[in-house]
Specification:
Elements: H1 3-27, H2 30-53, E1 61-63, E2 70-71, H3 85-89, H4 101-110, E3 115-116, H5 119-126, E4 140-141, H6 146-159, E5 163-166, E6 183-186, E7 193-197, E8 202-206, H7 211-219, H8 237-243, H9 250-253, H10 256-259, E9 260-266, E10 272-275, H11 289-292, E11 301-308, E12 315-323, H12 326-340, E13 344-351, H13 352-362, E14 373-381, H14 384-400, E15 406-410, H15 413-424, H16 426-431, E16 435-442, H17 448-459, E17 465-471, E18 476-483, H18 488-494, H19 497-504, H20 529-542
Parallel strand pairs: 4-6, 5-6
Antiparallel strand pairs: 1-2, 3-4, 7-8, 8-11, 9-10, 9-11, 12-14, 12-15, 13-14, 13-17, 16-18, 17-18
Helix pairs in contact: 1-14, 12-14
The structure holds (2R)-2-hydroxypentanedioic acid and zinc ion (ZN).
C-alpha cells in the first residue's frame, strides 16, 4: 500500500483528533493554565486520599486501563493443581525454623488484622501469575508501615524464619512466591503516596502502591510514571524496583537505575536503611540504592521509593506498521531514530505468530494486512502539529522505500490504547495457548530474531508455538514457547540451548524480568564467576542467615 493510500485509509483518525486538539488549545486560556497549577496541591491531597482508600485487590490483573481491568482467565481455584515447585524441580528445604504458635501470637499482637493463615486465602499468594510455580506458605503478613516491616524482619532473623517479600505477584520468573513455607511479607497495604513535588517531578511513595494508581494520580497533575508495563493494574512500585522492571517506556525515560532517586529499605536484621533522598545529584560515597534495584528482595525489603516523573506529554501519536522482514524492522528503526529524534518514545516489534495469538485468543483485530512482522512506534512530544509532521514525513519515507508495507496511525487516546493492546496483551494471549516457557533476552539487535528462528528449528513439532516480540528499541527480545503442558523433556531441549546461544553473542539471559527461581542457576551465562562470587559475598554480609527470599536469584555459595 502506498503512503498516499495509508493517509486516505486512516486520515479519519488523525483529522478528528487534530480538530479536537485545536479546540482544546483555544479553550486553554492562560488563566486556566495558572489555576491548574494552583489546584495541584489540592488535587494531590484528594488523590492521595483516593489512593489510600483504594481497596487491596487480591486478584491478579494483567490488563488495565480504558479497555477495562481484566482479570486473567486463570483461576486460583485451580491453584492446587499447580505442581509444588519443590517437587517439580527437586529442591531441598533449607534448615529454617517452622512458624510456631508463639510466632503467630507475636505477629497478631504486632499487626492486628494483618496476619492471614486461612489456607484458602493464602492460595493466590502461593502461586505465581503464570501458574507455573507453587509454594506452601502458611502465613501471610500485611504490614502498613516501615516500622512494622522492621519489627517483622528483626523477629524473623532472630528466629531463623525465612521470608518471601511479595508485591503484586506479577513476576515472570518465579521470584515472587515461596518455594516452601517461607512467610509471605506482602506490601499490599503499604500503598500511600508520601509526597509529590510538581516543580522537580519527584514522587515519594510507599512500596505497595500499584503502578497504574500512581500513574492515574500523576496524570491528574500533568505528570506520568517513567515506567509502564502490561501488569500495571496489579504490580507494585516496590516490586518493579526490586525487579528493575524495564517495560514500554524505557527507550524514552531510561531504566529505573536512573529514575529512582532514593529508596528506603529494611535489611534482614530489621535495620532501616534510609536512602530516600530526592536529589538528582548526590556523589557522597557509594550509591547503595543501586544494590537493591534488581536484587529481587534477596538483600532487603524495599519499603518506599523516590522516583523522578516526567511531564505528561501533550501530544502522543502511534503508528502500527506491517513489515516483510526482520532486517527491514532494523532499517526502519535506524530511519526512525534519525527522523523522529527526541519525540520517539517506543519502538516495539512482534511477529505474525504473536498477532495470530492475540487475534484468536483475545479476539482483538489486526488493523493492517497480514505481514511477517509488525512494528509499533510511539511518539510523545509537546507540539501536535510538529510531531505529526515529523511522523508523517517518516512514514512517507519508509513506505516509499518499501521498508514498511502497510500501516495505520492513531492520535486519539482510545485508538492509541486499542493499538497498544495488540502488543501489551501478548503475554496474556500466550497463557491461553498452554504452558509457557519464557525467555527475556538482551542481544545485539541484529541477532535478536535469529534466536527465535534457531529455537523454532531446534524444537520442531515438540513446541506448540515459538514466538518473538519485545522492546526492539532496547535490544530486548521476549522469546516465548508454548506447549500443551509442562514437560521436562521440552525444557531440556530449550535450556541450556537458549542460554548458550545468548552467551555466544554476549547477550543477557535476563534483560528485565530478573532471575527469580527459574533462572538463578544460569547466571553464569551472563556474568563471570568472580562477579557471582562478589554477589554472594554481598548477600552473606547483608543477610547472613539467608532468610530473605531464599532459593532465588543467586546459586547457593556452598
Ligand atoms: O511475557 C513476556 O515474556 C514479556 C512480558 C513483558 O515484559 C512485556 O514486555 O510484555
Ligand atoms: Zn517486556
Amino acid at each position: 500500500m502506498a503512503m498516499s493510500s495509508l493517509v486516505q485509509c486512516h486520515v479519519g483518525w488523525c483529522c478528528l483528533t487534530l480538530q479536537r486538539w485545536q479546540m482544546n488549545c483555544q479553550n486553554r486560556t492562560l488563566a486556566a493554565w495558572t489555576s491548574a497549577t494552583a489546584q495541584r496541591t489540592h488535587k494531590q491531597k484528594r488523590l492521595a486520599e483516593q489512593l489510600r482508600m483504594a481497596k487491596v485487590r487480591p486478584s491478579i490483573l494483567w490488563r488495565a486501563g480504558p479497555l477495562g481491568r481484566r482479570a486473567l482467565h486463570t483461576s486460583f481455584t485451580s491453584s492446587q493443581e499447580v505442581m509444588l515447585t519443590s517437587e517439580r524441580y527437586g529442591v531441598q528445604r533449607l534448615p529454617f525454623s517452622h512458624v510456631s504458635d508463639s510466632d503467630l501470637a507475636f505477629f497478631e499482637h504486632m499487626i492486628p488484622g494483618g496476619v492471614i493463615t486461612d489456607p484458602e486465602e493464602l492460595k493466590p499468594f502461593n502461586v505465581d501469575w503464570l501458574q507455573s510455580v507453587r509454594g506452601s506458605s502458611k502465613l501471610l503478613l500485611r504490614p502498613r508501615t516501615t516500622a512494622q516491616v522492621s519489627e517483622i524482619l528483626r523477629y524473623c532473623n532472630e528466629r531463623n524464619l525465612a521470608v518471601n517479600p511479595q508485591g503484586g505477584n506479577t513476576g515472570l520468573v518465579g521470584g515472587s512466591v515461596p518455594v516452601f513455607d517461607e512467610i509471605i511479607l506482602s506490601t499490599a497495604l503499604m500503598n500511600q503516596v508520601i509526597s509529590f513535588d510538581s516543580v522537580s517531578g519527584v514522587l515519594v511513595c510507599q512500596a505497595g502502591c500499584i503502578l497504574e494508581n500512581l500513574n492515574q494520580y500523576l496524570e491528574e497533575l500533568d505528570f506520568i510514571m517513567p515506567l509502564d508495563l502490561g501488569a500495571k493494574g496489579s504490580c507494585h512500585i516496590g516490586g518493579n524496583v526490586a525487579t528493575n522492571a524495564g517495560g514500554l517506556r524505557l527507550l524514552r525515560y531510561g531504566s529505573l537505575r536512573g529514575t529512582v532517586l532514593g529508596l528506603e529499605v529494611v535489611l534482614a536484621n530489621g535495620s532501616v536503611l534510609n536512602c530516600l533522598t530526592s536529589l538528582r545529584k548526590d556523589n557522597t560515597g557509594y550509591d547503595l540504592k543501586q544494590l537493591f534495584i534488581g536484587s529481587e528482595g534477596t538483600l532487603g525489603v524495599i519499603t518506599a521509593v523516590s522516583i523522578l516523573c516526567p511531564r505528561k506529554p501533550m501530544a502522543v501519536n502511534l503508528a502500527f506498521l506491517g513489515c516483510q522482514s526482520f532486517s527491514q524492522i532494523l532499517e526502519t528503526f535506524t530511519t526512525c531514530k534519525g527522523m523522529l529524534g527526541e519525540i520517539l518514545s517506543a519502538y516495539e516489534f512482534m511477529d505474525d505468530r504473536c498477532m495470530k495469538l492475540v487475534v484468536s485468543h483475545l479476539k482483538l483485530s489486526n488493523p493492517v494486512t497480514e505481514s511477517p512482522f509488525f512494528i509499533l512506534i510511539e511518539t510523545s512530544g509537546s507540539n501536535t502539529t510538529h510531531d505529526q509532521e515529523k511522523l508523517n514525513n517518516f512514514l512517507e519515507c519508509v513506505m516509499a522505500s518499501g521498508l514498511v508495507t502497510d500501516g495505520t496511525v492513531a492520535t486519539d487516546d482510545k485508538k492509541i490504547k486499542t493499538l497498544w493492546a495488540l502488543r501489551e496483551r501478548i503475554t496474556e494471549a500466550l497463557t491461553y495457548d498452554g504452558y509457557v516457557f519464557k525467555y527475556d533476552i538482551s542481544l545485539p539487535v541484529e541477532k535478536l530474531y535469529d534466536l527465535v528462528i534457531d529455537t523454532r528449528v531446534r524444537l520442531g513439532r515438540s513446541a506448540k508455538n515459538v514466538v518473538g516480540y519485545g522492546h526492539l528499541g532496547d535490544g530486548n527480545l521476549h522469546l516465548n514457547i508454548t506447549a500443551e503442558s509442562y514437560s521436562h523433556t521440552l525444557l531440556d531441549a530449550i535450556e541450556p540451548f537458549v542460554y548458550e546461544w545468548t552467551a555466544k553473542y554476549r547477550g543477557s539471559i535476563s534483560a528485565e524480568h530478573g532471575l527469580g527461581f527459574k533462572k538463578k542457576h544460569y547466571i553464569q551465562y551472563s556474568k563471570p564467576w568472580e562477579t557471582v562470587l562478589l554477589m554472594q559475598q554481598f548477600k552473606a554480609m547483608l543477610d547472613p542467615k539467608g532468610i530473605l527470599n531464599p532459593y532465588k536469584t543467586l546459586p547457593s555459595s556452598s
